[in-house]
Write a structure and sequence with these properties.
- The chain is of the alpha/beta class.
- It has a domain of about 200 residues: Spore Coat Polysaccharide Biosynthesis Protein SpsA, Chain A (Alpha-Beta Complex).
- The protein is about 30% helix and about 25% strand.
- The protein has nine helices and 15 strands.
- Strands 1, 2, 3, 4, 5, 6, 7, 8, 12, 13, 14 and 15 form a twelve-stranded mixed beta sheet that branches. Strands 9-10-11 form a three-stranded antiparallel beta sheet.
- The longest helix has 13 residues.
- It is globular.
- The mean pLDDT is about 95.
Length: about 300
């Protein structure tokens, strides 16, 4: 049995993505790692080369800005990773996601556990969404609790929407031309959290990153207004956060030591619509997230 890891990046250094840490975090259990490097001008490709692993195969790409709407270019890059992978199982790790070293081998154990059970098409992992720094996580309905990050290399598997998850399609034509919505993958849930550092940067750098990020989702008019609002990202503009009491992956410790800004969550500044407040507090009391979006079929 062969395991392929895959990811994608473009100008990851300029936008301060922990993409090197991301790759290194899963590399030990991968037989190969496909890194799709977009047309970068900041040395991202050289940073991947500097990892110096024979397992890593770099695929050079040019981002198609015609796929800018709704993050379609992200799915395109993810699909390149899938198409160049030769493993029986795939591990997808995005450029701002890291696996803790204490959890890594649980992934391989579960792949081995479910390899003979053909009902299982993927593994579902929980998320820690860090916000403002390394001390807080966002746990509201505005972020996904789980996502597929391990899956079988089955014909017809494609990235769904902006590459957040995956589905199976009858043909590549049906996928490309949006002729079908695809079939949700059958998955088993495993206790291996993804450490998601999407909102962890100095406020000015975070605003710069979001200017680029929204470029792949919003109109030019919206972007112009957003750029002119402020030069720094306002981390207090959030619905709700919780204190993170666990430990971070060792690979992230050097970044953490270089943190040169401070964010202290002020609960009084939280902004949440009333209906979301009701649903959020119900979830806190019961552990049940009503009307949760699930891009998967969970097997019992």
């Amino acid at each position: 049995m062969k395991i392929s890891g895959f990811s994608y990046v473009r100008n990851g250094i300029e936008l301060d993505y922990p993409f090197v840490e991301s790759v290194k975090s899963v590399l030990p259990i991968c037989d190969e790692f496909i890194m799709v490097v977009g047309d970068s001008h900041d040395g991202s490709r050289e940073a991947v080369e500097a990892i110096q692993s024979d397992k890593i195969k770099i695929v050079d790409s040019v981002w198609d800005m015609n796929l800018r709407v709704e993050g379609g270019v992200f799915a395109q890059q993810s699909n390149l990773g899938i198409d160049h992978s030769t493993g029986d199982w795939l591990i997808h790790i995005q450029a701002d996601e890291v696996i803790h070293e204490d959890d890594l081998y649980k992934i391989k154990e579960n792949i081995l556990k479910y390899d003979s059970d053909k009902r299982v098409q993927g593994l579902l992992l929980p998320y820690y969404h860090f916000w403002g720094g390394y001390n807080y996580i966002r746990t509201t309905r505005r972020v996904h609790r789980y996502e597929i990050r391990v899956l079988r290399n089955i014909k017809g598997i494609r990235s769904f929407n902006d590459s957040q998850g995956f589905r199976m399609y009858a043909s590549n034509e049906a996928y490309t031309n949006n002729k079908e919505k695809g079939t949700k993958l059958r998955v088993k849930k495993i206790d291996v959290p993804i450490y998601h550092y999407k909102r962890v940067r100095p406020p000015a750098e975070m605003k710069k990153k979001m200017n680029v990020f929204f470029h792949f989702y919003k109109s030019d008019e919206w972007l112009e207004k957003y750029k002119n609002k402020s030069q720094e990202y306002d981390y207090q503009n959030v619905d709700a956060l919780e204190e993170f009491k666990g430990t971070h992956p060792e690979l992230m410790h050097e970044r953490m030591a270089k943190q040169n800004w401070e964010f202290v969550y002020d609960k009084s500044k939280s902004k949440m619509k009333f209906r979301y407040w009701i649903l959020y507090n119900f979830e806190k009391l019961t552990g049940i997230r009503l009307f949760e979006y699930k891009n998967y079929r969970l097997l019992k």
